[in-house]
Write a structure and sequence with these properties.
5 strands, single chain, alpha/beta
């Protein structure tokens, strides 16, 4: 088996076809200088890989997991059931129900298995990356400064007047 990647934030997805959505999670992490790794870890097609990842991520330096999946979307919940780390779930849009099936699968977790579920699609993936940076900034004053500057920059880019 190939060695699984681990970084402060590790972004996993159920399939290579999820990458166009999940790639959006890398934008705020890159902008804020937060190290991340990515991997395909399918709950259904590579269950042993998923178990290995979920049960060892905290020992290998990962602090936050972003997990994206479409359709039945079991990946975020299965990982959350096996790790003490925070898991941010991203529902990936599916061709059958435009992502509502993914959203409902991820958001309906049983009591005691927490997944911080984001919106369906690219905006949810972007916000997952941002939320991961916010979580890490709680114990990283330099990251917190970069995050505050990033937010100020974002606000400054919104015009006051309609043109």
């Amino acid at each position: 088996m190939n060695q699984l990647p681990f970084e402060k934030v590790t972004i996993v997805m159920g399939s290579q076809s999820d990458w166009p959505t999940m790639e959006m999670a890398t934008k705020p992490l890159t902008d804020l200088g937060v190290p991340f790794a990515t991997a395909v870890v399918s709950a259904h097609r590579t269950p042993q890989r998923m178990v290995e990842f979920a049960t060892t991520a905290h020992e290998r330096g990962t602090q936050v997991i972003i997990a994206g999946a479409g359709g039945s979307a079991h990946l975020p919940g299965m990982i959350a059931a096996m790790t003490p780390l925070p898991v941010i779930g991203v529902p990936v849009a599916s061709k059958f129900m435009t992502g509502m099936d993914s959203l409902l699968s991820i958001v309906q977790m049983p009591k005691g298995v927490a997944v911080a579920t984001q919106a369906v699609g690219a905006s949810g993936a972007f916000n997952a990356g941002l939320m991961a940076a916010q979580m890490l900034s709680l114990t990283d004053p330099e990251l917190q400064k970069r995050l505050i500057a990033w937010r100020e920059n974002q606000s400054a880019g919104v015009p006051f007047e309609v043109e």
